[in-house]
Amino acid sequence: MESFAIWLFIVGIYRFFMSFLILAHSNAIKKIIYPLKPNETTPLFFRVLFMWVLSNSLLTVITALNIDNKPLFVLTWISFVIGLLHYMLEQFYFKTNTLKNNLSQLIFATPCLVIMGIKIINW
């Protein structure tokens, strides 16, 4: 589980830096995350997204440092589920992004969801 804690820590740090990138470069990010309907995003949306990603990054880093804390671990797993569902809804229901734009979410979230889900089942 030590290697997974390192992976979670890397994901948390990545999210931390991404949160400030979202805040600093919202005009460029809207074309990357929501290329099909970038005009539907507002500055308020990006401030909320910044807070969501920042809080998620802190939760992920804290979980990586306390990998044996079951309630914290489950809460982090739920946050990954919520994030992945959000991007899937944006793609399939709201039609604001594409699979290409979801690849980074799928690359980071899917392995974490599977490994964490197995650990939760076997806890």
Q: What does this molecule look like?
A:
By secondary structure, the protein is mainly α. Helix content is 81%, strand content 0%. It contains five helices and no strands. The protein has helices at 2-24, 26-33, 43-65, 70-92, 99-121. Helix 3 (43-65) runs antiparallel to helix 4 (70-92) and helix 4 packs antiparallel against helix 5. The longest helix has 23 residues, at 2-24. The mean pLDDT is 90.
Question: In brief, what are we looking at here?
Answer:
With 123 residues, the chain is mainly α. It has 5 helices and no strands. Helices cover 81% and strands 0% of the residues.
Which features characterize this protein?
123 residues; mainly alpha; 5 helices
What topology does this entry show?
Layout lengths: L1 H23 L1 H8 L9 H23 L4 H23 L6 H23 L2
